Amino acid sequence: MIDKTSLDQRYADLYQDAATDAEAADRLCRVIAVLRRECPWDMVQTHESLRKCLLEEACEACDAIDRKDAANLREELGDVLMQVILNSEIASETGKFTFTDVANEECEKMIRRHPHVFSTEEAKTVDKVLEKWENIKSKEHGNTSYAHRLNDVPLALPALLRSAKVQKRAADVGFDWSDISGPIAKVAEETSEFINADRIADRAAMQEELGDLFFSVVNVSRLAGFDPEETLNKATDKFIKRFEMLEKRAAADGRDLNDLSLAELDALWNEVKK
63, 82, 106: which is the final residue of a domain? Predict the structure, then answer.
């Protein structure tokens, strides 16, 4: 709750909770406009300086979803919305667009891309809805080739997610493995090629082959029906939990991890894996 007794009364109307979604959006827009005029930090922000902030806030919202923390999700979604409005406010100052423009354009996009809801077209399954969505999106972006659809996947996406989306779009036109055995064999092939590049200390080739290996592993994950980001995150979480157990096991013996040899650390690691 806000302690209103010490607040600047010039902005008294901003201290009252909104009663509707429309009023809440308007309140936040007006708060951000004040910050752009009077806060030293907000005043100097640009789209470029806020790029990292927007990404961080989106990731924190995703963390709240993964933890099923509704209270934190509400907070983090507010932070994401703040970023949207702040970027819109910055754009409005040079006449590029406003938050109203952003919201109206999104409404129009949703209506266009859901003809099975707002028009007479039909889409009885999720797959059909997604197919229509991609076709409409492709026409909107002026994609004249299938390769253009691949290039249209944002570079700013996490690498594993971008790879999976590119692979999925190639698969949509039939360019895909017939079953999972193909990419599994490809993983072995790319691993061998990386080892060969490492043997001759060719750094450029090592990086290229390692990229091919990652791409092949994403193909395996996709064809197995697993999201590669989620799958790798689960493995990372497992590593962290085991490392915590390793540290606790060492502490119980009165030892610090920095004082242990690699062989001793490996022995403890094998114990906690059991």
Answer: 106
